């Protein structure tokens, strides 16, 4: 799950970024409204963590701008002004949730998972496809009720495939979801992750759609 | 007595009462005088009448005549008149039957008061030489007084009955007249503490317009101050909570991560965050101290260069850390100024600190001290990127941070400088330098204590008018 962080305080920005990576997210971090606007228009994020007071403007204005242009990506506000009217203003401007500074990293991660889940239209946090069950909060995957050990990246790929419920996921989309801007992506990185996943879940579990991408095998349903 | 209503009622009743008593006393005296006059003229009239009647009769006849044939008897006030007729030789010719046996008066004409058998009589005597008689007509003084008392009683009774009616009317009028005041008081006391809406000025009596206007102006000022304070607090909370959130997040990372490298980085970020929070708290406290609305700040006299040297030395660690050199350029002579050294140091420190922070390693910050136009100035010049027009116009706005200031600044530095200079009566000017870099100038009026032998103007030349004006106001 790839998250955009818009926060001007360098220590906090770095903290959220590293913390969310530890929780299994992929993050990009920027410090201004302008950079936030640019990043969100070029990269498909699963959710955005947005600070209210930024050096070149208000996070709320950026949020309103997104909502006006039909941008429905889930947005979580970081606010120190945790008075009720500020929360109301934030939620009314189109925010999906907020946390007040200082916050707990685990809570931030949990809230992000919740708003992403809601945005994907799922009620339960667990994603099930056939005999596969994926719990994003605990980063745990079970196949026929037996735990399967996956790396962070493998988990990310599987989560993306399962969230599309058998739809095709393009290779570039997988790369986008897994790697931030600063990270070097090997050209065959996605193939390697798919290979490992097939090894752990069974050869037929993931199908290759030649020239397009990958999808979960419908066979897994049986 | 603190109630306007009680005061008004008491004052009105006292005033009406005083007028009432004066009226009663006046009518008592004038009624008494009038009645006395009427009674006296009745005595005179009666005496003349008797005398003229006696003039036609022989004295002897009169002496033997029946008393009662002349003097009719009556009831009440009508029988009060008493008459005696004497011969000039002093024999009683005749008298009314209610007359005392003794003579009511002496042998002289005119009014006389005489006490007979414990009763006071007032009488009038008329001498008729033709008839050879003396006629005396008298009244008992008690009778006269009773008459006066009765008349006055008749006058006073209605006035006494009117008194409570007047009191009631006063109470009612005062209460009614004070109704707008009570309405205003009710409207104010019915409010909760957060309601600072102005009072309605429409329909208020003219006497209440000045206090209502003044009150509304006060409410507006309080509201503005409160809004300002609220937004300052909100900003301060945001500015404090952000580094705290950073520290907390980094601490959680340090606790959660098993990767030595990540942990070490998180710990050093925590240290950085604590330093920055400390810096911010210091600036908030500085600002709060300057904001205290006290008029008198302690003033001492010292050379401007002393402060500049101290500040530059204080900032040595920062200079070393950033690789920036601060140069002091002091024009000679270096005349003393009289001002509050603490506020001046605060202002200068923030300006020099800013200059160091916007400079790149290897660049130079110049602090130029001098005097011009009757003012001492400290100009801080850096070789940094300067400010955009937008940044320049917002530079002294509290918590505003320009794009270059986002890394370390709290957005309070120049607000502190501006507030401190305003308190010292000095000024702050900022401008981009045409070549490159940025210049901030603090200027202060020269010390009024400066003696002519050490003039403020560095050149020592002609006296500038402004200096003279300052001297004049100071003496």
Provide keyphrases for this structure.
heterodimer; A: 222 residues; alpha/beta; five-stranded parallel sheet; four-stranded antiparallel sheet; 8 helices; 14 strands; 23% strand; B: 475 residues; alpha+beta; five-stranded antiparallel sheet; five-stranded mixed sheet; 13 helices; 12 strands; disordered C terminus
What report would you give on this structure?
- The complex is a heterodimer of chains A (222) and B (475).
- Chain A is of the alpha/beta class.
- Chain A is built from eight helices and 14 strands.
- In chain A, the strands form four sheets. A five-stranded parallel beta sheet of chain A has the order 2-1-3-6-7, sandwiched between helices. A four-stranded antiparallel beta sheet of chain A has the order 8-9-10-11, covered by helices on one side.
- In chain A, strand 9 and strand 10 form a beta hairpin.
- In chain A, helix 6 packs across helix 8.
- The longest helix of chain A has 15 residues.
- Chain A is globular and about 50 Å long.
- Chain B is α+β, with helices and mostly antiparallel strands and 475 residues long.
- In chain B, 53% of the residues lie in helices and 17% in strands.
- Chain B has 13 helices and twelve strands.
- A five-stranded antiparallel beta sheet of chain B has the order 2-1-5-4-3.
- Chain B is rod-shaped.
- The C terminus of chain B is likely disordered.
- The interface between A and B is medium-sized, with 31 and 33 residues.
